[in-house]
Design goal:
Length: 242
């Protein structure tokens, strides 16, 4: 079903990669007198709705920040509930998008996850690896600085004969990032009234456009997705030129 404003989208100028910081779940739940974890459960449903809509519009790459390397500092009960939510989704699949030809690439330091969760992550990535329409990067135990450090380590480990300065290039580093399947994001979407990147895709964001809003993630709708694509299409991207 078409969303209001969708007909205004220029299909020849679509962002090829949109990345979302799914923020504001806790506040959304608190406003309703519910535990924070209720907001995360609702946020997961919005994740699926936005993947589905972005696919219908024709956006080929998406990234979602679900759990950062810093989020372990939260109360144990909240961390456990988020991990259980992820476990449930990974096991049963993402029902709404299961038949949408979506490849799921989990990014972040997977070795920091519980062993059974690591296994589910690998199974999901393997099961969806031949899907072609869209790539969805799901960031779990992800930190941008940590990703850069791991990318450099991977380069050094692979270059068994030693690495020379000329091997260290922009392209080589990008190819060793967790997001190697996707081009750099064109648009970063951060709802919930915060104006920061929070260690998200800091290498890949060099020329990204930003879209901020006070909307809390569980309230983020298909119409908001259309609005941020339209806002993006109104931007003049110069990449340092004139
Ligand atoms: C930030 O909101 C949200 C998180 C740290 C967790 C996000 C996780 C999900 C939406 C679940 C993902 C699950 C799947 C299956 C994709 P916050 O808790 O910082 O909210 P606040 O700023 O209002 O406190």
């Amino acid at each position: 079903m078409a969303t209001s404003g969708e007909h205004l989208i220029d299909k020849n100028n679509l962002p090829q990669h949109i990345a979302f910081i799914m923020d504001g779940n806790g506040r959304w739940a608190k406003k309703r007198g519910k535990p924070r974890t209720f907001g995360h459960a609702e946020g997961a449903k919005v994740f699926e709705r936005i993947v589905e809509k972005a696919g219908d519009i024709g956006i080929p790459h998406l990234t979602f920040y679900a759990f950062s390397t810093e989020n372990w500092k939260r109360p144990k009960q909240e961390v456990d509930t988020i991990m259980q939510l992820l476990r449930d989704y990974l096991k049963t699949g993402f029902r709404k998008i299961e038949h949408k030809d979506v490849r799921i690439n989990v990014i972040g330091d997977l070795t920091g996850l519980a062993p059974d969760l690591q296994e589910e992550v690998h199974k999901l990535m393997e099961r969806t690896k031949d899907r072609k329409k869209m790539i969805v990067n799901l960031a779990l135990n992800y930190g941008g600085r940590d990703e850069i450090v791991r990318a450099v380590k991977k380069m050094v480990e692979e270059a068994e004969g030693g690495i020379s300065p000329e091997d260290i290039t922009d392209a080589a580093l990008s190819a060793h990032m967790d997001t190697y399947l996707s081009p750099d994001p064109d648009l970063i979407v951060r709802p919930s009234g915060e104006y920061r990147l929070s260690n998200f895709l800091i290498w890949q964001c060099a020329y990204a456009e930003f879209w901020f809003s006070d909307i809390l993630w569980p309230d983020f709708s298909e119409k908001d997705l259309v609005d941020c694509i339209l806002a993006y299409q109104g931007r003049n991207r110069r990449y340092g030129g004139v």
